[in-house]
Amino acid sequence: MERERCMMRSLLSPATKLSRMEDARRQTQKQLQIIDRQITRRITAILPQIARRQSGYRRGKAPDGRTLLERYRANLAGLTAERQLEVDALSRRLARQEAAIAALRDRLSLSGAYPHTNREA
Length: 121
What we know:
Layout: H1 2-11, H2 14-52, H3 65-111
Helix pairs in contact: 2-3
C-alpha cells in the first residue's frame, strides 16, 4: 500500500505536486486563523464578566482601569495558553510546508521545466 502511494506521488506532475502542497499550506493557515478567531470570540464573551467585577465609584474614588486591563490580559493569556501546543504544532507544520514549497519552486525554476511558477506566499 505504501509503495503504491509512493509510486503515485512520483507519477504526479511537478505542477500538481506544487498545487497540492500549496493547498495543504492554505489549510494549515486556515486552521491557525480559526484558532485565533476562537480565542477572540471567547475573550469577547467573557469581557462583560471581567468588567462587571470592576468596582464602581466607592467613597468618591473612580474605578481603576488598570485592574480591568490586568484581568483582561490574564484571561487572554490563559485562553492562549490552552491552545498553545496546537498553535505551535501548526506553526511548525506551516514552516515545513513553506520550506518544501520554496524548494520545489526552486527546483522547478532551475530545471527550466516551469519557469512560470509564481512566488506568492
